[in-house]
């Protein structure tokens, strides 16, 4: 009887400790369409919503501003977005998917301000964790 109780107690301890390791948040963007990922990117940029940034960008993410040749990797870009958390741009924004072929998607996001327009060309790649933003090139035409 003591052996059975010890076995049951040990099994319960193992199950609860293993489930605590598995409690890391699941990727809410894993099984969504590319348009949902682009929409999440637009929310991060235009209204400062940073909740999904951890799942939004690929590990090899690259940002480039074509006009001044600024570049940033994933860490720097997420840091920039965090610094602008909850800042809402006063602009009209829209996006369109230019091409989607297999596991690659290219979209154009436009943010029209009063005095200028910002255009982001967004490249997404689909992998085992779903669609992720791998590259953004910004221009001000």
From TrEMBL:
Residues 1-22 form the signal peptide. InterPro entries: FrzH/put_lumazine-bd, NTF2-like_dom_sf. SUPFAM superfamilies: NTF2-like. Pfam families: Lumazine_bd_2. Keywords: Signal. Coiled coil: none annotated. This is Putative lumazine-binding. It comes from Sphingobacterium wenxiniae. The lineage of its organism: Bacteria, Pseudomonadati, Bacteroidota, Sphingobacteriia, Sphingobacteriales.
């Amino acid at each position: 009887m003591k052996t059975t109780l010890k076995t049951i107690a040990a099994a319960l301890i193992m199950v609860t400790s293993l489930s605590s390791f598995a409690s890391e948040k699941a990727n809410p963007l894993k099984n969504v369409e590319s348009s949902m990922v682009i929409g999440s990117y637009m929310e991060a940029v235009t209204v400062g919503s940073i909740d999904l940034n951890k799942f939004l960008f690929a590990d090899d993410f690259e940002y480039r501003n074509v006009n001044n040749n600024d570049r940033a990797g994933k860490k720097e870009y997420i840091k920039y977005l965090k610094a602008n958390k909850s800042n809402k741009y006063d602009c009209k924004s829209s996006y369109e998917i230019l091409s989607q072929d297999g596991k690659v998607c290219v979209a154009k996001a436009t943010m029209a301000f009063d005095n200028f327009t910002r255009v982001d060309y967004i490249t997404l790649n689909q992998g085992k964790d779903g669609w992720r933003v791998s590259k953004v090139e910004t221009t001000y035409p």
